[in-house]
Amino acid sequence: MIKTVVCFAFVVLGVIGLVPFALLAVLLGFVGLRRPMSVFIYRLVQGWARGLIVLIGCKMTVVGRENVPKSGGICFVSNHASIADILMLLGYAGRPFGFVAKKELMAIPLLNVWISVLGGLFIDRRNPRKALKTINAGVKRIKAGGGMIIFPEGSRSRGKGLLPFRPGSFKLAAQSGAVIVPVALAGTYEVFERNYRANSCPVRITFCDPINVVDIPHEDRKMVLADRVRDVIGKALEGGAGS
Questions:
Q1: pTM attached to this predicted model
Q2: What is the C-alpha to C-alpha distance for residues 172 and 159, in angstroms, rounded to an integer?
Q3: Phi and psi of 163, rounded to 5°?
Q4: Is residue 99 part of a domain?
């Protein structure tokens, strides 16, 4: 219980303490330094994430880092078992990335700042027109050489294994023509959500072989991608440390 409290304090202090750097990055972004500041903020948050992982006591195994392109547009596609998934990816993806977050998170002070600074986009799924604008913004970011991540299961599996993938969630990757790197996260549910305490446990991150979207006929992309990526992640999880 003490470790859980310490970890929670680390999270809160980190979120608050790093806000000045986030605001500085936003300001410098307005004068043409958006790209270098994006990398700076990512490295800062990467260090924070790895520090928290060490504090929790996770025994990390990271496989396939060579499969992550060092430059160019990229779309990570990952299974989603836990709220710890983003933490693990921030620590070990090796590249800045944004993600699509539900609009309700905009109402949470400080968290909304960090989601935005890290390249996150807020989506209103109840408004198709606004949702489309959000997806288009993500597509534009990938085409400009940035990175995004999607969780095609739609919700956290919470230790129930790999859920069905929603083909519609691949719209971001399909429209951008991105290189997709499937990511298999194993063991993240044990980190916190199983008993809502910080648990020392093995976690395995597998960055699988990239899939070039442009090699797939446009009319079949979303369905083909959903099936192919789920199969790749499923096979990688079979050799992982849980799900």
A1: 0.88
A2: 26
A3: -85, 165
A4: yes
CB 67 within 8 A of CB 209: yes
The string over 179-217, giving b where at least 16 C-beta atoms fall within 10 Å of a residue's C-beta and e elsewhere, is: bbbbbbbbbbbbbbbeeeebbebebbbbbbebbebeebe
Domain count, the chain: 1
Give tens-digit pLDDT for 55-73.
999 999 999 999 999 888 8
CB–CB of 178/213 below 8 Å?
Answer: yes
CA–CA separation, 198 vs 2, rounded Å?
9
Looking only at the bridges linking them, the beta strands covering 59-63 and 147-150 are unpaired
- State the first-to-last Cα distance of the chain, in angstroms, to the nearest integer: 24
Domain hosting residue 112, numbered range: 2-238
Interval 110-151: pLDDT, tens: 778 778 878 888 888 788 888 888 888 888 889 888 899 999
Q: Is residue 243 part of a domain?
A: no
CA 122 to chain centre: 14
**Would you state the torsion angle of the CA atoms of residues 133, 138, 140, 146, taken in this order, to the nearest 10 degrees?**
160
Residue 49, domain CATH = 3.40.1130.10
CA–CA separation, 126 and 221 (whole Å): 25
